[in-house]
Each structure stands twice: as structure tokens, then as C-alpha cells.
Write a structure and sequence with these properties.
The structure holds 2 protein chains of 2 kinds.
Chain A lengths: L1 H12 L1 H22 L3 H32 L7 H16 L18 H23 L4 H20 L6 E3 L2 E3 L7 E2 L5 H8 L3 H14 L5 H28 L2 H18 L4 H24 L4 E2 L6 H14 L4 H16 L1 H12 L8 H11 L3 H9 L1 H19 L27 H8 L1
Antiparallel strand pairs in A: 1-2, 3-4
Helix pairs in contact in A: 2-3, 2-13, 3-9, 3-11, 3-12, 3-13, 4-5, 4-6, 4-11, 5-11, 7-8, 8-9, 10-11, 12-13, 15-16
Chain B lengths: L4 H5 L4 H10 L1 H18 L8 E10 L2 E11 L4 E5 L6 H8 L7 E6 L2 E2 L5 H7 L1 E3 L12 H7 L9 H5 L3 H22 L15 H14 L4 E5 L7 H16 L3 E5 L3 H7 L2 E6 L2 E6 L1 H6 L1 H7 L5
The chains are: A mainly alpha, B alpha/beta.
């Protein structure tokens, strides 16, 4: 029994298993609710696609933020600014050129989608460099002020009429001002697959979905395939950042987080390390922003308010700053429970009971005083779940800060090295290493 | 200007003199006179005197922390820097290691001017310091703390640490490093703490860790800022043993310390600072009996 337990514990020790179990649990819960509600195949698939979308994106973005905050201790609360720059630059590069017919509209350069993705990512990195040069001399809280100010500057720049529309070398481009930009890419999933010469796979998948769903399978297939692309991106981020963290480079970043002066005194050019880590993290945030909004059909500047930054911070704090595995788990948990969960709950309740929500809080409270009827209040709560969601997030954050500031995996020993540091290799009998490789 | 260099350039930099020396015969005649001066006071053999501080001055606003400090540290010695609180020892230290930029004066290390260079550059040249209050990387294991220290690791480059194949080099180098770190841990007898978070160590163990970490950067000269402060007598004994052992291996030490007796018993050369200036320097025996030192530092009690 005890050996079985310890074997189970050993399996659980593996990070991939932790993430897998968590994801399996989340998906199972969503599917079960779907079954209970009799969603049907189409509804189930859509629900899974939406869940995957948010799980993957929050995992991506908290991984990128983890490089800044968890590893290097750089207090970046301007995440959303880098995301916005990523998607806007990508849109301008990849949108179809404006035609004569639609004279009022803003076009783009009409380059392939993947070029736009690269350009947007690079632009976010470049903005990171621009911010890093003056700001990385600053200590934690001052850097925070600079970054949050930067993210608002980005939003106001995209809002401003000055950059709404201009001509560059015969192209009518611009950021569209307050009315935003129309993203006329068709299906990004399709175009990304085609860019990878996997157009056939895409068509095949649409056909497969078509065999399950009667009419119009394309949107469902798009959603699922896009989810797959996102999960692939999470894998890529996880591997790249994992290698980065588990190396002498990552070790210096951790040392900077712990005590920058001491790292300096040991001959590490901490400013150079910080700049590199900051720029890379910003580029990854830009890519995250692209992946998030590429499918949204249109973008407007006011989507990119600081609130989004704090969502990502909460995800990272839940998972535990400093751990990549924790970041992924935190992203998944945040997306499933705090971000998508309440909306899901709302639709569950809506489909189970006929919600007749009172229009004001007063009307919701009055029946309690009168006949002790709690139903109107309950309906009211369900109806305003999107607003209450923020309160719940705030409460979770307060609770975590009090009870478990290190999150799920934050305080774990994860020695940063490309070689094993948690036991002495030459002193251990051979089986300690051999056992694993034999399996 | 160039016709009358004696009055002008004596006070100016030695580099100036060197260039004019080779150039014009007129000046060469003058510099022959000057050359012995330079050799004796300003440019001793960098092999024998790796560290040299010349007229160092540091002002913070209206306060002059270091007024005029000049001293040198000879190779393979244990040099002590003592003085009462506020004498400017730590500021001197910070100016040498690039934490502060001196207001005036020069720091020469192995024949090169390192005045005002950033601290990581100074450290990479082979002049490494420890801190008065041990500054371990708390949320990193002891072994990780040590692995950080060695300079110019391949895996410190971003792309090398990520890309496949090139990363194999990083792994190889790290395996070697790990071995060296274990040896260092054993030397300092803290190998049983290797996997502990450095933040969980006791004060004395942190001091050992800091010394071990500084050593792994392969320095020529080690500057220890009060390495024995807050260390119990038996650990102090051990630390001293290590320091002596290392000195015999060829390391050079400059130690800032409050404890007069400790410095007198262990150092070959003692520099006494008082109110921002060097009061006196010399072997412990002469310093111990120096009237000024007794007056200023010990209040005439000893």
C-alpha cells in the first residue's frame, strides 16, 4: 500500500502529470455539466473550444509574466500594453489593403498572416526595449509605475485621431482611432494551417467535424483547431521558458530577483540580463495578445485596459510566481474557475430555471424584507455575474495574499540549472539515475 | 603648454607622462627625473601590488565620507583596514568595487585604472567583494548560489541556453561546474546544506556561503567587509583558518574589520582610517604602538 502510495506520489511529482491531471479535471467538469444540460455535440464542442481558448491564453500570458516577475522580479503591470501593440501591428501588417470603393475604411499592408504575427511580436519586443532602457534602472515599484503608464499611453495612442488613418507609400493604413480595426483575415486557424502547408489537414478536420455536425461545421472546426494551435503555443512557451529558466541565464535572473547588488558584485552585468529578459517577455506578451484577439473579428483600443493586466497577475499568483509549471496551472485554474467559470455558471442557471431578474438591487432586496423570498436576489446575482466576477477575483486575491502568497507552486525548490542539482551525482548509487532512464 | 610639462604634468595623469615620454626628447629629459618618482609612488609592479588606492575622495552632498585615502595591498598578503565607526572604511570599499563613483582619486588594479567602473566589471577583472551583512540569494539553494558565481558561463547567453544542440555545451560545462562547487562546499564544510534554501542558513553559515561564492568567481583579490561580524568564536576560528589557507594558495585579501585584536593577530599589513583619511599604516606592531591610533581609535585605553 505504502509503496503504491509512494509510486503515485512519484508520478505526481512530474510536472507534466500535474498539468495533465489539472486539465483533465477541468475538461471533465465542463463536459459533465454539458452532458447534464444536454448541450448536444455542437454545444459541447463549442464549450470545449472556448474553454481551451482561455485556458491556453492565460497560461501563455502568465508564463510570459513569470519570466518578468517570477524569475527576474521585474514588476511589470503594463502587460496589456504589449499585447495591444502586438495585435495592432499584426493587424496593420496583415490586413488587406484598403480598396478605392471603401474610401473611408483603413486598410493594411496585405502581407501574409504569419508575417504579421512575427512583426507584431517583434514590435512588442521593441517597445519592451524602449521601456527597458530608461526604466530598468528603476527599482520594483517605480518600474511598475512606468509600465502601467506605458500601457495607457499605448491605448491612448491607438485611440487618438492623429494615428487613425494615414498614407504610407500608397497604402492607407492606421490604427482606426476609437472605432478600431476590422480584422478581415477570414479564419486565422485556416490561414495558419495553410502557412504551415497543412491546408489538407485543415480541410480533413472540417470534414471530420462535418460528419458529426449536420450543418455549417466550419466555425466549430475553426474553434477547435485554433484551440489546438494555442495549446501548441503553450507547449512552445513552456519548453522555451523552461530551458531558459533551467540554465545559467535563468540562474542569474533568479539572483537578480533575490539581490541585484550581490549579483552585480559577483560580476554579472545585471542590467544586460534584465534587458534581455524584459524584451523577450514583452515579445511573448505581444504574441499572446495576437493569439488572443486575432480571431475576434475587430479590435478597439478600449479593450486593452489595465484590468486585463491584473487578470494575468491573478493567474500567475494563483499558480505561484517563479514556477513555469505553476504559471500554466494558475492560468488554467484562473480561466476555468474565475474567468470562464462564472459565465458558464450563468448559462447553466439560465438553462435550468427561467431567470426573471429584477432590474435594480433594491428590487432584489425588497422581497427578502417582505416575504423572505431569496429568489429575486439570486436571480439578480446570476444576472450580474460579469460584474460580480471582478469582486470574486478581488476576494480570491486577498485570500491568497493572506493565506498562500506563494500560490500553488511558488515556493518549490526548482534549482535553475541544465543539470540535476537536487542530488549529488557521483555519490549516489547508479540506480538513482538509472531507474528513470530505464523506464 | 607642452614646453613646460614639469609643473603641469606632475600632478596630471601618469598616462599623459607616458605618452609624452616616448614622443619628444625634451620631455624625456624631464621625465627621467620623474620616472623614479612614478615607479616608487604611483606605479609599483602590478604583480606585487595588485591593488592601489590613490587620493580617494567621496562626498555625499555636503558630507565628506572619505577625504583622502591612499594605500596599497600587496600580493599574497592579508591586509587589514580598520578604524572607528564612520571612519569611511565601507565607503572606501564601495568606491573600490564600483558601488559608488569616487568624487576624486584613482583606484588601480593590476596596473589598470578601474576608478568608477561598474561593479560587475570590477568583479570580472578579479577584484571581488563580500558584504558586511551577508547577502545570500535566499530563495535559491546553497548549491545554486555557488553555481551562479563562476564567470563567463556559456549558458549565460540567452540563445545558447534555449537552442537545441548548442545547449549540450552548456550542460557539459555545468556538469564540470557542479563538481567544482561540490569541492568548494566540502572545503567550507557546508556540503550538508547544499540543497537547503540559502535563506534558511544561520548567520555564520551565510558568511561561509558568501566567502565560498566569492571564491568561485576565481578572483585575484578578495575584499571582505567585516567577515567576522556576528560570527561565533568557533566559526570565526574556522573562517580565519580558511582565509589563511587561501592566502597560502596565493589569494590576496583586504579585510575591513572592527575587531582590533583580530586584525593585529592575523594581518601582515594594517591600514588605519580615521575621519575619512588614512591615519597610519604599517605592520601590526608599529600600528599598535602608534600614539595617534591609540588616541583616535581606542580612546587611549589600551
Amino acid at each position: 500500500m505504502s509503496t503504491a502510495d509512494s509510486r503515485l506520489a512519484a508520478v505526481w511529482e512530474r510536472d507534466a502529470v500535474k498539468i495533465g491531471v489539472l486539465l483533465a479535471g477541468i475538461y471533465l467538469a465542463y463536459v459533465l455539466v454539458g452532458v447534464v444540460l444536454d448541450y448536444g455535440v455542437r454545444g459541447q464542442l463549442n464549450s470545449i473550444a472556448t474553454l481551451t481558448f482561455y485556458v491556453a491564453l492565460f497560461a501563455l500570458l502568465s508564463l510570459a509574466l513569470n519570466l518578468h516577475w517570477g524569475y527576474t522580479g521585474m514588476f511589470n503591470i503594463g502587460v496589456v500594453g504589449f499585447m495591444a501593440v502586438g495585435i495592432y501591428v499584426m493587424a496593420v501588417v496583415s490586413k488587406a489593403p484598403a480598396t478605392e470603393a471603401a474610401a473611408g475604411s483603413v486598410g493594411g499592408l496585405g502581407l501574409p498572416l504569419w508575417v504579421g504575427v512575427l512583426a507584431g511580436t517583434a514590435a512588442a519586443g521593441l517597445l519592451g526595449l524602449l521601456v527597458a532602457l530608461p526604466a530598468l534602472r528603476l527599482r520594483a515599484d517605480y518600474l511598475a509605475i512606468v509600465t502601467v503608464a506605458m500601457s495607457e499611453m499605448v491605448r491612448f495612442t491607438f485611440l487618438s485621431g492623429t494615428f487613425q488613418r494615414f498614407d504610407v507609400g500608397g497604402f492607407v493604413i492606421g490604427f482606426g482611432g476609437g472605432s478600431g480595426l476590422l480584422l478581415d483575415f477570414g479564419s486565422p486557424a485556416q490561414r495558419l494551417f495553410e502557412a504551415l502547408f497543412l491546408g489538407g489537414v485543415y480541410d480533413g478536420f472540417v470534414g471530420l467535424i462535418g460528419s458529426v455536425i449536420d450543418n455549417n461545421p466550419r466555425p466549430v472546426a475553426d474553434g477547435l483547431l485554433y484551440g489546438l494551435i494555442l495549446l501548441g503555443a503553450v507547449g512552445l512557451y513552456y519548453v522555451v521558458l523552461g530551458r531558459l529558466g533551467n540554465s545559467p541565464f535563468g540562474r542569474v535572473l533568479k539572483a537578480i530577483r533575490e539581490d541585484e547588488d550581490a549579483a552585480n558584485a559577483l560580476g554579472k552585468d545585471t542590467k544586460a540580463f534584465k534587458t534581455k529578459a524584459f524584451v523577450l517577455g514583452c515579445a511573448l506578451m505581444g504574441l499572446g495578445g495576437i493569439l488572443w484577439y486575432m480571431t475576434s473579428g475587430a479590435i478597439t483600443p478600449n479593450t486593452y485596459r489595465p484590468r486585463l493586466t491584473f487578470f494575468i497577475w491573478i493567474a500567475l499568483i494563483i499558480g505561484g510566481a517563479g514556477s513555469n509549471t505553476g504559471s500554466v496551472m494558475g492560468g488554467a485554474l484562473f480561466a476555468a474557475l474565475l474567468f470562464q467559470g462564472p459565465r458558464f455558471l450563468q448559462s447553466v442557471v439560465n438553462s435550468l430555471v427561467d431567470v426573471d431578474a429584477p432590474s435594480t438591487f433594491g428590487q432584489a432586496l425588497a422581497p427578502i424584507g417582505g416575504a423572505g423570498d431569496l429568489a429575486p436576489l439570486g436571480f439578480y446575482v446570476i444576472d450580474s455575474v460579469r460584474q460580480l466576477q471582478l469582486i470574486v477575483m478581488g476576494l480570491v486575491l486577498i485570500f491568497l495574499m493572506h493565506r498562500r502568497p506563494e500560490g500553488l507552486l511558488g515556493h518549490r525548490k526548482e534549482p535553475a540549472s541544465s543539470v540535476q542539482l537536487d542530488r549529488r551525482p557521483d555519490r549516489e548509487p547508479a540506480y538513482a539515475d538509472g531507474g528513470e532512464t530505464d523506464e | 603648454m607642452s614646453d613646460e610639462p614639469p609643473t603641469e604634468t606632475v600632478a596630471a595623469s601618469a598616462a599623459d607622462a607616458a605618452t609624452t615620454d616616448t614622443g619628444e626628447t625634451d620631455d624625456a629629459a624631464v621625465s627621467v627625473e620623474r620616472e623614479p618618482d612614478l615607479r616608487d609612488d604611483d606605479a609599483p609592479d602590478p604583480e606585487e601590488v595588485p591593488l592601489q588606492v590613490e587620493g580617494l575622495r567621496k562626498e555625499f552632498g555636503g558630507i565628506t565620507a572619505v577625504a583622502d585615502a591612499s594605500f596599497q595591498v600587496e600580493a599574497g598578503t592579508l591586509t587589514g583596514l580598520i578604524g572607528p565607526n564612520g571612519a569611511g572604511k565601507s565607503t572606501t570599499f564601495n568606491c573600490i568595487t564600483g558601488v559608488h563613483e569616487p568624487t576624486a582619486g584613482a583606484v588601480t588594479f593590476r596596473g589598470e585604472d578601474i576608478t568608477g567602473l561598474p561593479s560587475h566589471t570590477v568583479a570580472n577583472r578579479g577584484l571581488v567583494r563580500t558584504f558586511q551583512i551577508a547577502r545570500e540569494f535566499g530563495e535559491m539553494t546553497v548549491l545554486e548560489n555557488l553555481m551562479l558565481a563562476p564567470g563567463s558561463q556559456r549558458g549565460e547567453s540567452l540563445w545558447r541556453s534555449v537552442l537545441p544542440f548548442v545547449r549540450d555545451d552548456v550542460v557539459d560545462q555545468e556538469s564540470e561546474l557542479r563538481e567544482r562547487c561540490w569541492e568548494t562546499l566540502e572545503f567550507f564544510e557546508i556540503d550538508h546544506l547544499a540543497h537547503e534554501f540559502a535563506g534558511n542558513l544561520s548567520g555564520g553559515q551565510r558568511k561561509l556561503l558568501e566567502l565560498a561564492r566569492a571564491l568561485l568567481t576565481e578572483p585575484d583579490v578578495l575584499l571582505l567587509d567585516e567577515p567576522f561580524a556576528g560570527v561565533n568564536p568557533s566559526l570565526e576560528e574556522r573562517l580565519l583558518e580558511h582565509v589563511h589557507e587561501l592566502r597560502e594558495d596565493g589569494y590576496t585579501f583586504l579585510i575591513v574589520e572592527h575587531d582590533m585584536d583580530l586584525i593585529m593577530d592575523n594581518c601582515e599589513h594594517v591600514v588605519v582610517m580615521h575621519q575619512g583619511s588614512v591615519l597610519t599604516e604599517g605592520p601590526p606592531e608599529t600600528v599598535r604602538t602608534d600614539e595617534d591610533v591609540i588616541e583616535a581609535y581606542l580612546g587611549g585605553d589600551v
